Amino acid sequence: MQNSPLSGSVTASPGRRTADSLDRKVNATLQGSWLGLFLTELFEGVGQLALFLLLLEAIWEGSASWVKPDVYVLTVMALGQSAWLAWRRLRGLTQPWWSQLVGLVFYALVESLIEGASFFVKPKHVTFGVLMLVYAWGAALEGRSQQPKAALAGIFLSRTAQGLGPLLFYLALDLKGESWLQGVSGFFDSAAHTFLLALAITQVGALISLALVTRRQKQVIVELLDQLKTLSRWGFGNRVVEAVLSDSGSQAAIRVERAIGFIDIRGFTAWSETHPPEEVIGMLNRFYAAVLEACAGKLIKSKMSGDEVLLVLEADGNALPIMQAALRATINAVQPSQLSAGAGLWIGPVVEGFFGAQEAPVHDVIGDTVNTAKRLCDHAQAGQLLAGPPESLPDSMAPRTSIHAKGKHQPVLAALYRADL
User: Fold this and answer.
1) How many Cα atoms sit within 13 Å of 283 on the Cβ side?
2) For 42-63, how does the pLDDT look when each residue is reduced to its tens digit (9 = 90+)?
3) What is the domain partition of the chain in residue ranges?
């Protein structure tokens, strides 16, 4: 390999499909368990309003509430809807506006069959229905993250429903046996009731402020995570980051079977000395992108250094066609600059994992397999791929060649492939 003054070391993301997988893995880790989502929906979401009504029913009816269906219907509604919404969030499904109203429809349907038409005029039921509709409307608007004004209006509506809920349910309880107009007209004549109103308004303001702060914090976290994921992909590769997240910690170095490939641009040093840095960087970027696209997300990791790329692949029958595709893509990418490339592939055991200081470990692969693949790449002519051991390759009819590789006491037997075949 020839290094230019611009060469460095960077590990690139192995394809869009794996990147999406890493995003899902990170999001799932942050999202938490179904139980956590269920409790959030129950005590902070739409279930909270059902719990308010449940408490009102228990106080309203006293000990008789336990022999009436209202309490049980509400309990099933609160638990069922919270569980369903939590399941949807865990699966990454969208939350349409009507999803917040499934429980309300269930409750109204069951209770109206029991109580008849009078169900729809009772203050507690009207209060519950209005609050649920306002909350559902607000939650739907709040989910429009790409429309800040709509999301802000949604926060205002949903938090207003939650903050005023206790006061309005108290008002419904105080109206027991009275008409709406008669009870409400004198409700705030009491200083205690006026104080409750002030508390409710203060609670609404606190909930809105907390929601806005939380929303901003989530945006900062998402932006920071995007940056960290990008740096992790560059430094370790997507598959490595996913494995670390799965194990909840760093992985010790282990001996495994891998296919190690190297691709090197031929004539790069002389070419780079006669071209401006911007043109050199543009050519290298096309080279890197072409290799990663050709690998189609099948890489375990990749490491790029100047005009050379190291590819770590599964030690199976796909390694050879992947390397052939990557070499062809490289040649197509560098041909406009009158350059070509050669490649080497060797399958065997490597030591793979994290090395170095605990404060700054580096994930890498080391061993004779890596060294042999590098030697084959150095000996390959432009447009050639030298691969082995031949008995590990699916194409047994390829011509053989013997390589006197540096550091080897015996010649290395490799199969010879051309990129144009």
Assistant:
1) 27
2) 988 878 888 888 888 888 777 7
3) 17-234, 250-418
Tokens of 192: 């205690």
Which two structure tokens, joined as six digits, stand for 366?
Answer: 């080391």
Angle between helices 123-142 and 46-61 (to 10 degrees): 170
CATH of segment(s) 250-418: 3.30.70.1230
The mean per-residue pLDDT over the stretch 78-103 comes to 89
131: CB partners within 8 A, 6+ apart: 49, 161, 164, 165, 168
Q: Which residues lie below 8 Å from residue 78, measured CB to CB, with a gap of 6+?
A: 42, 47, 50, 51, 54, 103
- Residue 294 one-letter amino acid: A
pLDDT in tens, 168-183: 888 887 776 666 666 6
Q: What average pLDDT score do residues 239-246 get?
A: 68
Query: What does the mean pLDDT of the chain come to?
Result: 83
What CA–CA distance (Å, rounded) separates 368 from 348? 8
